[in-house]
Amino acid sequence: MRNTAPAIDIGIEKKTRQDIAQGLSHLLADEYTLYLKTHNYHWNVKGPMFNTLHKMLEEQYLELAPAIDDIAERIRTLGEYAPGSYKEFAELSSIEEASGKEDAEEMIREIVLAREAVVRTARKLLPTADEADDEPTADLLTQRMQVHEKTAWMMRSLLQ
């Protein structure tokens, strides 16, 4: 007799799980693209703000890495496959990649815009998670929005 895994029965209908996973896939793509952009800027920043930005951007990409994993694992928990290629991320992300040749102020501006784009992606999914009583996803979204809003504020403050 062949062993088979039981169907997922966590109190959320399959179609709703798929819809939430699709929204999380967009969030994952945004977070990963932001991670890549942040790491790129960390490597390529120059000018009088170099030391401050180099350290700040390192802290940011180190925070993003486990969050990306959490989002992908939530997608898998819901029974769907997580996107994992540059091609998939490029198709799903609302954030443009960066060249790394921007000046420091433009890098800061781009990080602010990208952080706020991630917040919008998360906020768009929140009502679906709430309606499904999917507290783990709602909690994940709320945590990510809080991190991105605060970081956007801190980065924006460097420009004022």
What does the model show?
- This protein is mainly α.
- The protein has a single domain, classed as Ferritin, core subunit, four-helix bundle (Ferritin).
- It contains 5 helices and no strands.
- Helix 1 packs across helix 3 and helix 4 packs antiparallel against helix 5.
- Belongs to the Dps family.
Q: Structural class, from secondary structure content?
A: mainly alpha
Report the oligomer: single chain
CATH class: Mainly Alpha
Euclidean distance between termini CA atoms = 68 Å
N-to-C order of helices and strands: HHHHH
- Per the CATH scheme, the topology name is Ferritin
Percent of residues in beta strands: under 5%
Mean pLDDT over the full residue set:
96
Provide a quick synopsis of the model.
With 160 residues, this protein is mostly helical.
List its traits.
160 residues; mainly alpha; Ferritin; 5 helices; oxidoreductase activity, acting on metal ions; Ferritin-like; Starvation-inducible DNA-binding protein; DNA-binding; DPS_DNA-bd_CS
Task: Draw up the topology in text.
Layout: H1 14-44, H2 50-77, H3 86-92, H4 104-131, H5 135-158
Helix pairs in contact: 1-2, 1-3, 1-4, 2-5, 4-5
